[in-house]
Amino acid sequence: MRGVVSCVKHGGSPEENVYSVVDADSGSCRTFKSTIVLKEGELAEFEPEDGIIRTAAISFDEKIAKGVVDGAGASAKRHVKNKPYKHGQKGLDDATTKMWPKLSAAARLFIRKLLLGVPIMIRFHNDADGSSGAYAVYKALEELGAKTGIGAAGNISWKMHRSVAYASDDASGDYMLSNGYASIEKPLLLIIDFGTSVESNSGIDVVSKRFDIIWLDHHPLEKGFGGFSLEHYINPWQYGGDSNYTAGFLACTFARTFSGVDVSDLAEASFIGDYSEYSRPTESGRKLSMLLDLLTSDTSIVTGARDSNLSPEGINSVVIDGKRTEELLDYAKNKLDEAIAAALRSVKMQKAGSARIFIVDFKDVRDDTSRYPLPGRFASKLLDKVAELNPEPCVVVLHFNRFVSVRVDKKIADKTNLLGAIREMKDAYTNVDSGGGHMSAGTIKLSNDENRNEIIRHFVNTMKRNLEA
Ligand SMILES: [Mn+2]
Hints:
Blueprint: E1 2-9, E2 18-23, E3 29-34, E4 43-45, E5 52-53, H1 62-79, H2 90-116, E6 120-125, H3 128-148, E7 156-161, H4 168-178, E8 181-183, E9 188-192, H5 201-207, E10 212-216, E11 232-234, H6 247-256, H7 264-273, H8 283-297, H9 300-303, H10 312-319, H11 322-346, E12 348-352, E13 355-361, H12 375-389, E14 394-400, E15 403-408, H13 413-416, H14 418-428, E16 432-437, E17 441-446, H15 452-468
Parallel strand pairs: 3-5, 6-7, 6-9, 9-10, 10-11, 13-14
Antiparallel strand pairs: 1-2, 1-4, 1-8, 2-3, 12-13, 14-15, 15-17, 16-17
The chain binds manganese (II) ion (MN).
């Protein structure tokens, strides 16, 4: 049979190369080893049932190569649904309908890359929201593969991302990874649930020519962010929605453009994880959210190693094991209860107009032997707790080494103007080097901690001034 080499994954030596070959007649993509060295775009003869290419009439036929790419494009189109998915909540569905042309265009690109065996890199934020989105895409791909065989030869890599910015280091890593491949089309980068901070601009600069990029996000639109100029940048804020339309839900919707897989629990897990007003908690959604929160905080539970990468496959291995899941949920609950009790013992409170600001040093909360809970997400849970105990609207400021995490009761989010206060700190101090987030959740990161206490004091006073105005 005859096919076009669509992607070469370079091994340590040429014999270890893995070739993705698209059958010129059927359009299906498979991987082969080869006894001769081939280049992307070349025609190869191969035996259908053999995993090795031995005889290859190597040539380059532009017409056949173009036919293969066009065929993948046409096939991708057939796999993407025209009719917008409906969740049954107006705010969500209105935004989904407006976004659908963008989402389905992105999905057509995604499926085409998949059909061609071109490298796909998927980065997702390491929280319940980002990981539920990645897991939904994973499940959709599994279903698509089982039904059609598409993606079996996929060069897909997953990377859990521990920050809200796509820094130039991250981009260099992706760039280097892509150097391990040669393909007839650009590789694809899919980003799920990163922020819109300008700190990502340098990373975007590094990869924007090298990759086609699909960027699914739901953070407020920050001025100067370079991601907006990407062709496949999709954010509900641009379509009448807001942060309550979670990135996890957006990725679930993206997955639904080409798959009928049931990801409703994952959508709910993302709503719970990001405190979305669209949350209609179910028992299974609640459990999944807590489990994803735990696994993305402490990867050693899945991989055995701290700070290691976590893939949706790893998440899936736990989710399908009911007994292990229950044990882990108990463990998470105990850890969280201990941390809340410790925080309530050490918290400092300040009055700010009719609101209250609670300041906590995370060192008093969790020891360093464990990764769970992580400070940012713990700040959200602590806000829930202090809101339960206080009739006044509350703000939580939690600091941990060079990080300051803030959570604000939604009722006073406008008045607190958290994002404005963060910007003020950036302007006032040279060592405040990243920060941002949502109106009711944000983080400041310091490049060094020489004037840490002064910055925290100034920051709290700024929010206090806003609240008292
Ligand atoms: Mn999110």
